[in-house]
Amino acid sequence: MHLRTLLASAALALSFPVLADDHQHSLEAHVHGIGTLNIALENQLLELQLESPAMNIIGFEYQPTTTADIQSVKAAQNKLSNAAELFAFSPAAQCRLTSVSIENALLKGSGAHDHDHESQPAAEIAEHQHNDISAHYQYHCATPAQLNSIDLAGLFKLFTQTEKIQVQLIVGDHQQGAELSAKNTSLSW
Ligand SMILES: [Zn+2]
Questions:
Q1: To 5 degrees, how large is the angle CA 172–CA 34–CA 39?
Q2: Spans of all domains in the chain
Q3: Ligand 1 centre and the CA of 22: distance in Å?
């Protein structure tokens, strides 16, 4: 067997345990400070899908139980909903936000806690839990042909624990990838 074939099949075999376990899959890919953003433009519909460790957005990943922590989660959720503060597009494209949906593992079951019992210190729990946040934004662009840049300066400014965003862009038949950071916030195509 050729060495390259052997290496390829070894890599494939190694990747299987990760793929086979759905529950672990997203955790394997989760690195604090790094998020991903998929951008797709089809006709006049522009879609953004942001996936991020909760750490980058909220600053912790444990289920909040104190009032202060629950408020932090809600405040971060509000910032994340405010797409105009996060993303800037080519103005001439006239893209208007039509919907936002956010999946935040730290908001599930909030408010249902009983605070009478002694809970574990948050710092201890934090060591053992990872949670992600995903946000989906849809825009309608009046002049999509004019859309040729996106700037994430606002996102990096609001979420300072976000170090890098790995961007994948699909506009018509054009595909492009880039790694953006606070020092390099924009992508043009
Ligand atoms: Zn984590």
A1: 15
A2: 3-112+123-188
A3: 17
